[in-house]
Design a protein that fits this description.
5 helices; alpha+beta; five-stranded mixed beta sheet; elongated; single chain; binds zinc ion
Length: 140
């Protein structure tokens, strides 16, 4: 039995969920497929946060679009390789722009891509007693 994710374009193939928009579209509505939630949508449903990224600094005021594009591009690329790696939520906070991810590696990758694209100061830590990685990026 083929399984399709009801929350996104992931398809259960072989032993794991993979992101496959075309196959998802092709199999949608067929009688021999079952709907389920992929590992990524499951994590979002359960609000599983494995990474918190805080980006801040005056640089962002003038480069907001570039920064948002970068986040989206990194998230899309990562999701195609690993459906469980997703952005859970993004929001403006008094401290800066906060991105919560369902995956530790995705949070680290966003920080590294920011450093690669815009320089700035990157700090990645795993605070004791916390369940997620904290990534801070800053440029004034
Ligand atoms: Zn899904």
């Amino acid at each position: 039995m083929m399984k399709l994710c009801s929350g996104c374009n992931a398809v259960f193939e072989g032993r794991r969920w993979i992101y496959n928009e075309n196959l998802h579209k092709k199999l949608s509505g067929k009688s021999n497929v079952e709907l389920d939630l992929c590992t990524g949508c499951e994590k979002i449903k359960k609000k599983t946060i494995d990474g918190v990224v805080l980006i801040k600094g005056d640089f962002l005021k003038k480069h907001e679009d570039e920064a948002l594009n970068l986040i989206h591009n990194v998230a899309e690329k990562k999701r195609k390789r690993n459906v469980a790696a997703r952005i859970f939520r993004m929001r403006e906070t008094p401290e800066g722009f906060l991105i919560e991810t369902t995956d530790r590696a995705l949070a680290e990758l966003i920080g590294k891509e920011f450093e690669g694209a815009f320089s700035g100061k990157l700090d990645i830590r795993w605070p004791e007693g916390e369940k997620f990685v904290r990534v801070n990026w800053e440029r004034d």
